[in-house]
Amino acid sequence: MSTAVAAPAAVRRRRGLIEALTGTDHKSVGLLMTVSALVFFLMAGVSALVMRTELAHPGLQVVSDQTYNELFTMHGSTMFYLFAVPAAIGVGVYMVPLQIGADGIAWPRLALLGAWLIIAGGLIMWSGFLTQGGAAAWGWTAFYPLSGKPYSPSTGGDFWIIGVVLATVGAFLPALCLLATVFRRRAPGMTMLRVPLFTWSEIVTVFMVLTAFPVLVVAMILLFIDRHGISIYGLPGGAITYQHLFWFYGHPVVYIVFFPLVGVVGEVIATFSRRRFFGFSVTVFSLLLFSALSMTVWAHHMFTTQSVENEYFSLTSTLLLVPAGLEYFGFLATMWGGRIRLRTPMLFALGFVLLFLIGGLTGIFVASPVLDYHVHDSYFIVAHFHYTLFGGTVFGLFAAIYYWFPKVTGRMLGEGLGRLHCALMFVGALVTFIPMFFLGSEGMPRRVADYLPVHGWTTLNMISTAGAFLIALSILVFLLNVYRSLRGGEPGGPDPWEGQTLEWATTSPPPRHNFWRLPEIRSHTPLFDLREEGRDPLAEVGLRPRGAET
Amino acid sequence: MRSASSFLALWGLLLAIAVLVAAFIFPHGFFPTALLGGAAAAAFLIGLITAASRTGDPRRVAHGSPDISPATVWLAAAIALACLGAEVGYWLCLIAAGMGGVGAGALLREVRAERRDVRRVR
After folding, report:
1. pTM for the full model?
2. Are A296 and B58 a contacting pair at CB < 8 A?
């Protein structure tokens, strides 16, 4: 039995730029957040290329040391505050209401306000380059006392703080809207344990956003006040206080940008293995455990300060293996015995699984204080977190883009270019970041603009730089693919992948009110249930005449 | 474990366990207890609020108002300029306050128009 949904009788449509920029429909807001995040991703990527060029050979002076410091600050800051977090939440703003059978998001104006605050924060942050002293040059962490006025007097630093506050508040607001939507707007029959995996991953993400983001906002406001004459972090113990406040946000945010993509990858793997996700309920509880545990590990970034209880934070950091292992088991068990289709979203999902594994396993090394003392602030750490963030977030995001592009635009992305993109990016990620493990073990510190030939790091740095350009090439292939698809790509239809969840039970792109009719919901995979019973899901929701399934 | 807020409460409970372990088995400093305790309390609080809040009809009423809100974007610009004014100068804060007033008024107008439309459809 399906549920008919009331459609608007008369809807005045204002398509085009105005709607794209000011639309309160969750699809419009989600798209605004995701596309703007991708633009910031490109900006951060260009800054990474300049940095890698600078490091390709000792003695190169592509940019000055000061500019290099500003570039790595803006690279890290942009990737976290302006790309990864907004993209992870933006995809949720678009997809979560569709997955739970809702006709919109709760408090849509608040979500739109958040999207624009992120963009405004990004513009203010980057406008630091236009100020006399240049942009902030203290890393994405802004550790005190380096970020204090005496050491970093530039106005660009203050712009950075304002930008971070706006972007963080901006991400907080749509996250709040998502939670209210899931709690209050689920379709009839959609109990919490029938909510799809991606939506669950967004729920636990929002739990973390609600508890971690306010702490960063407070830390940044205090830093701003400190820089304007009232000593706060300058008091005894202030620098450690800053680190506690920062890392209470700074570590969970790694998971905030990662969990939604775990959900995406889980759904992609299930869809392209033509099976339900293995151990769905266990995975949901492991996500809850994973997210709660990841709130308790922040001070492993502070092992070397000798101001924290290393045993406690080492224990909690190592315990993360348990829920992570459960999720990996779920991925593998879903594929086991499945009829796997190796289409582009699935390839990116597999790339995610493999690359994040490297990041996760090296995470065990640095969760141990004795090993962390050796590699702290070295390129080993840079390699580790790039495997979690690039391997996890970026590969997961591209899996999401290739998977949902037909739903959002109505057109398929090219399969050939998609495979080329995936292959180049996968090889690029290995070539760029594997050498960094060796560089770090050999003692190359992070955040240096140059090194001496006698260090013997030249070859590894050269390889790493070549890998970075390979990644850049893969992004160009992606942009070409998007351009070709939007110009005249193959129509995707409502359900090109034989999807399992509700977003595939509507037209592509979905109408303003999302659904014409909802199928009966008896599990987290309502469309899969219908197929199992030999029924055509699209016919059930009135998108295809009965008996017309091809 | 049927209601949505019970999952949030469970999450808060997991954090509370972590607080207890930090406080009693590995006592070291104020921050682990304070930050984790605060997070656990916040999770419980949000869970309680969502559990207590009215349920009502969750489905939006279809109406003819356009799904756009230029006033919200204007308000976002005002907030951003107000924050920037803290660094650039208070004159910018004053301009932002003016913009914010206009934006809030326009937002109110939008919301009222939408409510009027909803009443008409009902």
Report:
1. 0.94
2. no
